[in-house]
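Board work, copied verbatim: DUF659 domain-containing protein
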Amino acid sequence: MYKNYGPAENSRVHNQPKNSIDIMLAKFFFYCNIPFKIVESIHLKNLIAALNPDYHLPGRKFLSNNLLEKVYEEVVNERKEHLENSDCVLLIDGWKNSAANSKHIVCTVHNADNNRQFFVESYDITGLSENTELLLEIVNKTINLSKELI
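↓ predict structure ↓
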């Protein structure tokens, strides 16, 4: 059956600072693409109250502004840390969607040192002529964007 882990007072949730829990909650929302309005759901509020009555969920505005900015900065800094002083490869992939009559190019950086990939930019080239000038422009833009990441 279900294992009883004891009362909530013994839970680590009570020992976590609010800011730390807010960041974990924000990452859950962002990485799982959960709409911000869900943070106002009575069902989520009831769940959180059962887990830790002392914790109060952040509002939708705080989640979408303050916490999004904090997590974004954390991700950018982590990416810089992984890319600094390491060998990287720029990967460019393109595809056509005949049904939608669209063409796209996506550029990523692959860090061979720690086997991590990072999205750099995507380009909608629908209606543009696929030639060396266009590809050279995309490569140069992407290289410059990649340098800004570091």
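The CA atoms of residues 27 and 33 lie 10 Å apart.
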